[in-house]
Write a structure and sequence with these properties.
This protein is mostly helical. Helix content is 42%, strand content 0%.
Length: 151
């Protein structure tokens, strides 16, 4: 279950279509595609900021989390990607996007992501753990508590 990966046609969650999304390029595109080698190559260039935001305010880490690419997330975290940047539309952090994927969310929580960060609607990452609409593979509250004890 992904928060914003667009399929063809109208989306039932927010009424947007594929054509509503700006095309991605560079680091953002590599992160969305899960292309670990391209992410590493792009980050090795001096001109690329790991925390660069696209027009929607999304960073490469947002995209990697949203698409469930744990290897890319690990690379970005090792390069000190920000865990706090919120995208513009909903005010979601990378952890908000990661909650539907337990493995990815675990990486962010262990890296220090704020589980109490709230989006524009006042919904925290921790609140999302209790929401069955996030899917069966979502990070659950009990596991968050165990991970926080490990930090």
């Amino acid at each position: 279950l992904n928060v914003s990966v667009m399929a063809e046609g109208k989306q039932s969650n927010d009424g947007t279509t594929v054509q509503d999304w700006k095309s991605l390029e560079g680091l953002h595109a590599a992160a969305q595609e899960g292309n670990v080698d391209a992410v590493r190559q792009i980050l090795s260039s001096d001109s690329t900021s790991i925390n660069a935001q696209n027009e929607e305010g999304m960073t490469a880490l947002h995209w990697a989390c949203d698409c469930g690419h744990s290897e890319v997330v690990s690379v970005l975290l090792k390069e000190n990607a920000s865990l706090e940047i919120k995208e513009k539309r909903d005010g979601m952090t990378p952890l908000h996007f990661a909650i539907p994927n337990e493995k990815v969310a675990e990486l962010l929580i262990l890296a220090g992501a704020d589980v109490n960060a709230k989006d524009n609607d006042g919904i925290s990452c921790l609140d999302m753990c209790d929401d069955p609409e996030q899917g069966e593979d979502r990070m659950k509250r009990g596991k968050v508590e165990r991970l926080l004890a490990q930090r």
